[in-house]
Design a protein that fits this description.
This protein has six helices and seven strands, in the order βαβαβαβαβαβαβ. Strand 2, helix 2 and strand 3 form a beta-alpha-beta unit. Helix 1 packs across helix 6, helix 3 runs parallel beside helix 4 and helix 4 packs parallel to helix 5. The chain is globular and about 70 Å long. The protein binds nicotinamide-adenine-dinucleotide (NAD). The site of nicotinamide-adenine-dinucleotide has 28 residues, from helix 1. Nicotinamide-adenine-dinucleotide binds next to helix 1.
Length: 249
């Protein structure tokens, strides 16, 4: 059993660059029509121009409930009910809890967690009209364990994981699957300038590439038709465990 993406209408957030842009390319290659959304208009329009008629760019700040309604209405008017939602937009805020400003905390929660809620809230009625579909929420390995100096990010990504499970329970009867992807370090502008020494101790000791995450996204959408509410981890094995050195005897 598979879910065909041929002619399917998809919305991707944070689509102007990084993983989101790769997801748009992958969806188009699989036959979907994609509303690529972001707040980086120039990059978003360039991507849409590059990919042709199967992509339209629309500005969407994921924290703006009214803008969500507008984008869903525009997608449906142009191409029909929405079958796929990829909640990918996200930001990272660095700093220990004692020095992280409340406004930075709030901004991370607003974009990374409330944005995912608003997306599902806006899209589900359209997905029902499509007789079902699939939602993929992009969490992180930071939604599976703690990371010092990433408190707001970690809290938001754990929230995405829990919200995904709740949505899966609520929407299963409507033939809508909801899953989360949990990437480890992936080569995108988000981690420019971040020390990546930690990848050396992973079982697969390298940074991941966006297209590897897109492959997992397409697997979830097209092939994982009996999976919902679950975590799909793509992290080079980084959270698998730690290596204990054999002591000298
Ligand atoms: N790169 C990594 O190592 C990594 C690891 C785990 C999870 N992630 C997650 O993957 C997703 C994609 O990140 P990326 O690495 O491609 O980063 P990125 O910074 O390249 O892309 C994120 C996109 O989200 C957009 N965005 C930010 N705020 C927005 C808002 N309010 N409304 C709409 N769009 C907004 C940005 O403009 C950008 O285009 C994020 O949710 C991120 O948390 C990234």
């Amino acid at each position: 059993m598979t879910m065909s993406l041929d002619g399917a209408v998809a919305i991707v957030t944070g689509a102007a660059r990084g993983m989101g842009a790769e997801h748009v390319r992958g969806l188009v290659a699989a036959g979907a029509r994609v509303v690529a959304t972001d707040i980086l208009d120039e990059e978003g329009r360039a991507l849409a121009d590059d990919l042709g008629d199967a992509v339209m760019y629309r500005r969407l700040d994921v924290t703006d409930a009214d803008a969500w309604d507008t984008v869903v209405a525009q997608a449906e008017e142009a191409w029909g009910p929405v079958k796929v939602l990829v909640n990918n937009a996200g930001i990272v805020m660095f700093g220990p809890i004692e020095s992280l400003s409340p406004s930075d905390w709030q901004r991370a929660i607003d974009i990374n967690l409330t944005g995912v809620f608003l997306g599902m809230h806006a899209v589900v009625p359209s997905m029902r009209r499509a007789n079902g579909g699939a939602i993929v929420n992009i969490s992180s390995t930071a939604g599976l364990q703690g990371y010092a100096n990433l408190g707001a990010y970690v809290a938001s990504k754990w929230g995405v994981r829990g919200l995904t499970k709740t949505a899966a329970l609520e929407l299963g009867p409507d033939n809508i699957r909801v899953n989360s992807i949990h990437p480890g370090p992936i080569r995108t502008p988000m981690i420019d300038g971040v020390s990546l020494d930690m990848v050396k101790s992973q079982p697969i000791p390298r940074v991941g590439e966006p297209e590897e995450v897109t492959a997992m996204l397409l697997f979830i959408l097209q092939d994982a038709t009996y999976s919902t509410g679950h975590e799909f981890i793509i992290d080079g094995g980084t959270i698998v465990g730690a290596t204990v050195d054999v002591p000298d005897t």
